[in-house]
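G., the chain you wanted modeled:
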Amino acid sequence: MRLAAGRTALAAAVLAGVLLALPGTAGPVRTTVAGGVAAGGVEPWNPRRPADYAAMRAAGLTWLRTDLDWRFLEARPGRWDWPLYDPVVRDAAAAGLRTLGILHTVPAWANGGAGDHAAPPDPALLTAYCYRTARHYTPLGVSAYEIGNEVNLPAAGRLRPDAAAYTRTVLLPCVAGVRRAAAETGHDVTVLLGSLVPADGRAEPTRFLQDVYAAGGRGAFDAVALHPYTGTDSPVTSDKLTAAPDALHRVMTAHGDGGLRIWATEFGYPTGGRQSVTEERERDFVAPALTAWYAHPYAGPLFWYSARDSGAGGHDREQHFGLLRADGSPKPAYHAVTEWFTSRG
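Predicted structure as tokens:
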């Protein structure tokens, strides 16, 4: 997710006045298979949130995944900007969507400016962020928390992802805060291991997960998050939705966690920019992808990334993952997702 580019493109679209009406939403749709939408990093600045979320609910989706970035929530020590994400969570609830919040990023004051994804030297600071955030948002409708995003990939301040370091400095301190908040509010929450993505070497998902267990991570999470993107390949020919999650689940089973689920917290295809697919090809990929994922007995919700394109042009593929175009009109994939989920109601 590219926050700066997405926010700029979104603002440009608003100023240009090109936002159109979203598909009709005649009320909540009942489904027996839980699916969701990963909204991306621009939601606090998205003026069409209510309409977008209503459209996602009309498609049969029941979850929203959104950032709850520490760098924005507490940009200055002790000064919490709850109004930034409050409307996102409230709009999701109003649309009938449950919320999965991503707990990640670190403000510069907490880690000496080492980068957005460098853990603070004092783990108590991270515990306090996760506690305060969960304490505030759980009563508002956030019922699941993902501890980091794509934690096995390099990022600012995390040039060499290390599962043991992630477990020791991020996962365990953050989960301690979330569990305390849940106990105090009397709510049940689901804690997800930070999402894993295809990678090589020590960052390969099964190896990374094995190292999390070796570092004492068992018991900290209730489910594992995965981003089984297939690139531009068909979900029929790629193993990312089939053999890859099976291998991950075998690791979980070997460590006594075979009863836990794997959530696909991001999945989708860009329909613009480099290494993209046509809108028609994306539509054709929807049913095979969803069918492959939910065939797993351990499958948790799959979140389509994302709700709406954050831009209408250019070569940045990150702007073109939406089920809706930047102007709010539905892509063919939106109708395919709707047909797949509502037919299972």
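The radius of gyration is 19 Å.

Shout if anything looks off.
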